Amino acid sequence: MGDLNWAAIARQYRAGLLEDIVPFWLRHSLDRQCGGYLHHLDRDGSVWCTDKMMWMQGREVWMFARLYNMVERREEWLEAARLGADFLRRYGRDQDGDWFFLVDREGGPKRVAYNVFSDFFVVMGLSEYAAAAGESWALDLALETLRRIVRRRLNPKGRYSKLIPRADLPRDHAFPMIMLNVARQLGAIAPSDEIEALGRAALERIMRMHHDAARRAVFENVWDDGSRPDTPEGRLLNPGHAIESMAFVMDAAGADGDAGTVESAVDALLWMLARGWDRDFDGLFYFLDFGGRPPEALEWSMKLWWPHTEALNALLLALRLTGRPELAEWFQRIHDYTWRTFPDPEHGGWFGYFDRRGNRTHDLKGSKWKGFFHVPRGLLRCWRLADEIAGRPGDGSGSQLVD
Amino acid sequence: MGDLNWAAIARQYRAGLLEDIVPFWLRHSLDRQCGGYLHHLDRDGSVWCTDKMMWMQGREVWMFARLYNMVERREEWLEAARLGADFLRRYGRDQDGDWFFLVDREGGPKRVAYNVFSDFFVVMGLSEYAAAAGESWALDLALETLRRIVRRRLNPKGRYSKLIPRADLPRDHAFPMIMLNVARQLGAIAPSDEIEALGRAALERIMRMHHDAARRAVFENVWDDGSRPDTPEGRLLNPGHAIESMAFVMDAAGADGDAGTVESAVDALLWMLARGWDRDFDGLFYFLDFGGRPPEALEWSMKLWWPHTEALNALLLALRLTGRPELAEWFQRIHDYTWRTFPDPEHGGWFGYFDRRGNRTHDLKGSKWKGFFHVPRGLLRCWRLADEIAGRPGDGSGSQLVD
């Protein structure tokens, strides 16, 4: 595994998690007055907006429960998870049982449940909480929500879809990717044939429709007939997303002993790193166009925190499973970039947004889109994987390292 | 009027319009095969996507018809306008009479009419075309569309709104701003009490609800009761939008001889320039937060073409109406920045997108959001206003210079 000191790397990620990120969010995010989490946090942790995104509530419940289940049975973490789980139970759903997108500080609804991604993260949060607290209502509600997601699957935005039903209907990568992750998570807590089938179908869809070996890319939008028109939508690449998805695939296929699928996912990880890496200024681009044109999203060339934390843990998982040496080189490169760019030595926590050239564009630590999720999850996975690599080099066997 | 050579400035804007922008779009955008306009144009004018945004069709019809009506009765321009007007008539509307958001090259619908802004620009395009071509169907359809907009006014996104009806309902600045512009346009072509009342109500709403003299700012989102919560939404500033709106107000108030409202709008223009100008790297920011925090939009600090072309013509209109000397200083500053930043000397046309520090992020000349509209409209207005200023200094009287 090259010259990397894996034990020291494990210590660095552990310290980042337990001495920086977790204390920062425990100190600033828990809303003891109204329940749930305040996640719009400024650089110093002060709250700059009290609205609550439902998916951020679900993610934060998950992360605190996960720490309790995976790291240590600290009462403080379980209580933090309970604060969010109870808020979700009380204020989270509309009359139909779909989860709101946004509520105010007191839990009053502000935006309807216009897609299924709030619901997915609520399933993750409540099921992990159920395992931590032994409260069966949370697992029941998670399973009920997952079944509603499946029923809404073919039109996940429901009546809010702006597509013309008879026109081309692209299918996005996000749905099977998150479904695979959620099915792995639920399968560990409440295994069933139903859950296993959902996970298998999601993995197969990703690898058959989005993973494209001929073009050496993972595409975000694919049409139902397998085609991908030569349009900006059809050409869209999201390196961070693709890399995160390949980690879920590696994890599931590794656990099943499916070495062929693991290798295909590792190949795709390497394609997307090579495509996504900015050779001029370092860091991973946010969006790319397969044809080499600037994507329409104005922020395409920005450097965000989460593609980097996802790449780091995907690389360690790949290394753990296959031992391919170029993975360690990529890990070193992205590790160096990440640690010199994102942590805030002054106030703690990690920044999220930099322009292409590395100028910070936002000071915030939390927002509608950045919460207690990618950084702590990534640090936890890297810590555990580096520890495993330090102890025993990759032997091709899997273990549930990705959640 | 300082040391500026207004006659030379008028010549520069006229040449930019007639020798660069109009030939570029005439050469590359007309879809003689399927009708309408191809507006996704790459740096060299090649078409990079054949989808057609309905609002871009409406804007381009308007601009070609406007050139025909205001500059010269060139048959080529009228034909270009007809190409878009006929496409709108054939493919533009759904069964209810609302205009689609997006259609494919052949006119097949791809996105439903989920807000009223497509409709607004269609009203502008068809009414200007009616005046150019003398075709009454176009004016009838414009008026019918305007009446539908008014009926949909309280819920302009219709069933696609993601707001909870009983929650706070912010009202955005875009609606009265575009309504004012459209009412001025229609009032010149088909004057009526109905149109005049719509324009008057829009102007009053902008100046009473969005223009805030105590805070010296024009706010984008205001609640129905006049409040503006201390949230990112309530604090949002869009300098380019505010400046464009103040130009519409100046134009309408100037024509009515309402010098008090003209002065208030000029004040606001100057506040928003002072707030919006990037003192470190020049150029106008895209979004700002009234409280000084980076806005949530990742692209907030980018420099886009349209706030600059809007600022230039707003400044000349203000100068023409009031003669205040600081307006000429601002004009000089933004003129210098704009002409050194946006034109493409190699392939013609203007670029649209730069990062805060002036690095170009996109090469395209046209997209879903950039078409044949802000640049030619701004150049035309500046040419005409500079000519007027060159000939006769501002005397406080109005004329319909803004459309």
Helices and strands in order, then pairings?
Two copies of one chain form a homodimer.
Chain A: H1 6-28, E1 40-41, E2 47-49, E3 52-53, H2 54-70, H3 75-91, E4 102-103, E5 109-111, H4 117-133, H5 136-151, E6 170-172, H6 174-189, H7 193-210, E7 211-212, E8 217-218, E9 221-223, H8 232-235, E10 236-237, H9 239-255, H10 259-276, E11 288-289, E12 303-304, H11 305-322, H12 325-341, E13 353-354, E14 360-362, H13 374-391
Mean pLDDT, all residues of chain A: 92
Strand sequence of the main sheet of chain A, in spatial order? 3-4-5
**What is the 3D form of chain A?**
globular
The total tally of domains of chain A equals 2
- Quick one: biggest sheet of chain A? 3 strands, antiparallel
> Can you tell me the CATH topology of the largest domain in chain A?
Glycosyltransferase
| Tally of alpha and pi helices of chain A | 13
Q: Structural class of the secondary structure composition of chain A?
A: mainly alpha
Q: How far is the N terminus from the C terminus of chain A?
A: 25 Å
Using DSSP, what is the number of strands of chain A? Answer: 14
CATH class call of the largest domain in chain A:
Mainly Alpha
CATH architecture of the largest domain in chain A: Alpha/alpha barrel
Q: Largest interface: which pair?
A: A-B, 40 and 40 residues
Order of helices and strands of chain A: HEEEHHEEHHEHHEEEHEHHEEHHEEH
